Amino acid sequence: MLVASPAYLAARGTPKKPADLASHDCIFGPGNFGRVSWSFNRNGTEISVDVRGRIHTDSGPGTYASLIAGLGIAMVSTVMAGEEVEAGTLIPLLRGYKLPAVDVHAIFPGGRRPSAKVCALVDYLIRELK
């Protein structure tokens, strides 16, 4: 989801459509690090917007801290920011638009079958991240 802090939105305004992001400070986190455009989908139509920002981080906590500090708008997972959205600390934006899916991979060591604990964790993540 796309989110920002209430303080950032009060100072800079709330984007109403993806094109509005071109005039905002965007935070480039692990899922979009190094990309200069963000893609959205609405009613089967793909929209790509060139975005800019001063914050580039390859860590979720770095993205989160930048958001809470009111430094911009970022794409984050619902797992990462769900509680903050629920509490009103972060505000979801452009909810009528779908963001591209992010692949998640579980990597197991070679050899024997993973332990029951590892299998239970992977099963949990599959349910939660769908």
Descriptive overview:
The chain has 4 helices and 7 strands. The chain has helices at 6-12, 60-68, 78-87, 116-129; strands at 2-4, 25-28, 37-42, 45-50, 52-56, 73-75, 91-93. The strands form 2 sheets. Strands 5-2-6-1-7 form a 5-stranded mixed sheet. Strands 3-4 form a two-stranded antiparallel sheet. It is an alpha/beta fold. It is 31% helix and 23% strand. It is elongated and about 55 Å long.
Write out key terms for the chains shown.
single chain, 130 residues, alpha/beta, five-stranded mixed sheet
Chart the SSEs and their pairings.
Blueprint (H helix, E strand, L loop, with lengths): L1 E3 L1 H7 L12 E4 L8 E6 L2 E6 L1 E5 L3 H9 L4 E3 L2 H10 L3 E3 L22 H14 L1
Parallel strand pairs: 2-5, 2-6
Antiparallel strand pairs: 1-6, 1-7, 3-4
User: How do the strands line up in the largest sheet?
Assistant: 5-2-6-1-7
Low-confidence runs (pLDDT<50, min 5 residues)? Answer: none
Number of strands: 7
Mean of residue pLDDT values: 88
Helix content: 25-40%
Please count the helical segments: 4
Tell me the radius of gyration: 17 Å
Residues in β-strands, percent: 15-25%
The coarse overall form would be elongated
Order of helices and strands: EHEEEEHEHEH
The major beta sheet can be summarized as: 5 strands, mixed
Give the end-to-end Cα distance, rounded to a whole number of Å: 14 Å
Secondary-structure class: alpha/beta
